[in-house]
Amino acid sequence: MTRKLYSQIDAAAQAVGLSVYGALHPQRGPVTGGTLVLFGTDAEFWAHVTQSDEWHDGAADPVDRWSRRVVDALASGFHATAYYPFGGPPHTPFVDWALASGRAFTSPSQFLVHDKVGLMISYRGALHFADEIDIPRPPLDCSPCLSCTTFACIKTCPVQAMVDDAPYQVAACHKHLETNEGRICLDQGCLARRACPVSQGAQRDPSQSAHHMRYFHAL
C-alpha cells in the first residue's frame, strides 16, 4: 500500500469532521501488526455532531454514538477494524497508541499534548488495517513543550490543579468548578488547556468544550 491510501483515509476523515491524529505500525498490545490510524476532532467536528440525528434524538452519549457510527462507516469503506477510546472493558490503550504514534507527548501537566491541537486533544476512534500502510513521519522530533518558555498550561490554572511533573489535582479542579469563578472553565473550556499555544490549532468551538466539561463535572 502507498502513501496515497493514507491521504485517502485523511480526506475521508476530514469530510466528516475528523482528522488523522497519528498512525503507527503496532508491535505489541491487543492489536499487533499492520497499521493503526488514529482519529480525533477537527475544526468542523462540532458542526457535524450538532447537526446529527444522535444529537437531536434525546438519547444518552450523543458524541460517542455519533463517533461510533461515523468511524464504523470509515472502517467499512476501507475494509478495516474500528476501535474506540470509550466503552469496555476491555478498554483500548489509546494513550499508549497516541504516544507510540510520535504525534502526542506527555506535557508537564501530565496531560497528553498533540503536535497540532495541543491540550485540546480528543480521540474519537481508530482504524486497524491488516497490512502496513506507508505513513508519514511525525512533523515534530520531540514534544512542543520542550521549546515552550511560558508553561502557560500550568501557570494559567487558577487553583494550581496542574503541577509540573506531578499528577493532575482532580479534587481541586472540581472544587473550583463549583464556584462562580469556575464558570468560565465550564462554559468555555479549561483555561489551562486553552492557554497552551499549540491548542490554538484545534480551532475548538467553546460550546464543544462546554459539553465535555459538563460530562466531566456534572451539575
Descriptive labels:
219 residues; alpha+beta; four-stranded antiparallel beta sheet; two-stranded antiparallel sheet
List the SSEs and their pairings.
Blueprint: H1 3-14, E1 18-24, E2 35-41, H2 45-50, H3 53-56, H4 62-78, E3 81-83, H5 94-100, E4 104-106, E5 112-114, E6 123-129, H6 152-156, H7 170-177, H8 183-188, H9 191-195, H10 206-216
Antiparallel strand pairs: 1-2, 2-6, 3-6, 4-5
Structural commentary:
It is built from ten helices and six strands; from the N terminus they run H-E-E-H-H-H-E-H-E-E-E-H-H-H-H-H. By secondary structure, it is α+β, with helices and mostly antiparallel strands. The mean pLDDT is 94. Helices cover 37% and strands 14% of the residues.
The SSE string, one letter per element, is HEEHHHEHEEEHHHHH
* Envelope shape: globular
**Mind summarizing the main beta sheet?**
4 strands, antiparallel
Helix content percent band: 25-40%
Instruction: Give, in spatial order, the strands making up the sheet with the most strands.
Output: 1-2-6-3
Structural class: alpha+beta
Instruction: Catalogue the unreliable spans.
Output: none
Beta-strand residue fraction = 5-15%
How many individual β-strands?
6
Mean pLDDT, rounded to whole units?
Answer: 94
Separation, N- and C-terminal Cα atoms: 49 Å
Separate helix tally: 10
